[in-house]
Write a structure and sequence with these properties.
homodimer, mainly alpha, Tetracycline Repressor, domain 2, 78% helix, DNA-binding, MT1864/Rv1816-like_C (chains A, B), Homeodomain-like_sf (chains A, B), transcription cis-regulatory region binding (chains A, B)
DNA sequence: TAGAAAATCTAACGACGTTAGAAACGAGGG
DNA sequence: CCCTCGTTTCTAACGTCGTTAGATTTTCTA
């Protein structure tokens, strides 16, 4: 039956419209406005519709988190064209911080303790993979033998995340945070290069 | 009137009992359980009592955040007896991460974007002051002229916070996070020492 | 075009933060 | 001792939240 495939298409379409609407609400009005009723209104339905497509609100939020990581990775890839590997890493980090500054509310739920750690890790995996590749290339081109590769990845990840967070946790602006992350990354890499 | 002073004492006492109860609930059952009704039950009162002592729930949470920073500073001071300044900084950072691991829910609200940035900064000020002093002593004893002192402070702060957060955001344990922050701090300081 | 199946809505539940107004309590003067 | 007055505390409610059951409307098939 052609109808059933069309039905499936429609179902998928409204599912994506819900995600899109949720993103719009989140980015424009923040976490507090991200309610099921508000999202449903945005797609011109009533609240229970959301539960036809997501087990609960958390499941929908997980989709937003995944979307956020995809978006951030896209931003990072922009910077990944820089030929010099060290500069490339710095630019990627800087681009992540810019992303955090441009999508503060999205970035917040991407790192909210409320979302399941495993789900977040799954969503972040491609970004983690990029980081691992960058560090791998960097260590090879600089003939650096890192004491522990995984440790190095976590340290870079934590540093970028921490400094990006200063943007909305403290009182520093986005351009300053970007400057800071660039400096921090340069310093850490310099430290590793000189065998600290 | 002696009665009025006793009344004031009682008022202050119940205020502190509310804070204490809120802390107990938060630490033992997490953010989701931290409701006004739950807290009131804990002190054997009904919900509206809370509003006699705090303008709203957020104001109470701010008190918890302040308490958290005091507690963390106490932990940090333990490590501040180490004579060698660089090792002292590493130990202080490590102690902060340990604190985050031992009080995960408290640490979470201490860095929740939901609490006012200004209030948090005020609560964190003593900790920030300690950090500034440490970096000041460090740079003098190592004859390092930092490109920008404030930048250096923010970088250290962000690094420690970021790596501490990996503890509950990702899937790494507390002892690993502590090891990571120690390495990260050593690396950054080494980078600054060699003028990166 | 009647009846089955799917999509969607209405109405409600319990829990949340919060507030207004009633009830209970304590102290001081007749 | 009782009665008033001010304070403390509670009861009851409002509006909003996430979520679900059941009715209702729409859509397709036979």
């Amino acid at each position: 039956m052609a109808t059933s495939t069309r039905r499936a298409r429609e179902r998928a379409s409204i599912r994506e419209r819900i995600i899109e609407a949720a993103l719009t609400v989140l980015e424009s009005e923040g976490t507090a406005a991200l309610t099921v009723r508000r999202i449903a209104t945005e797609v011109e339905y009533t609240a229970p519709i959301v539960y036809q497509h997501f087990a609960n609100k958390d499941a929908l939020v997980v989709e937003l988190v995944a979307h956020g990581y995809r978006l951030m990775l896209d931003s990072a890839r922009h910077a990944a064209e820089e030929p010099d590997i060290e500069l490339r890493m710095v630019k990627v980090g800087s681009e992540c911080v810019r992303f955090a500054g441009e999508h503060p509310h999205l970035y917040q739920i991407m790192n909210s303790p409320a979302v399941d750690a495993e789900e977040r890790t799954r969503a972040a995996q491609p970004a983690i993979d990029l980081l691992r590749e960058l560090i791998g290339v960097w260590s090879r081109t600089h003939d650096v033998v890192l004491a522990d590769f995984d440790d190095a990845c976590e340290i870079i990840w934590g540093t970028v995340y921490g400094i990006a967070s200063l943007g909305f946790l403290g009182t520093i602006g986005n351009e300053r945070a970007r400057h800071l992350v660039e400096q921090a990354l340069r310093t850490v890499l310099a430290g590793w290069r000189t065998g600290a």
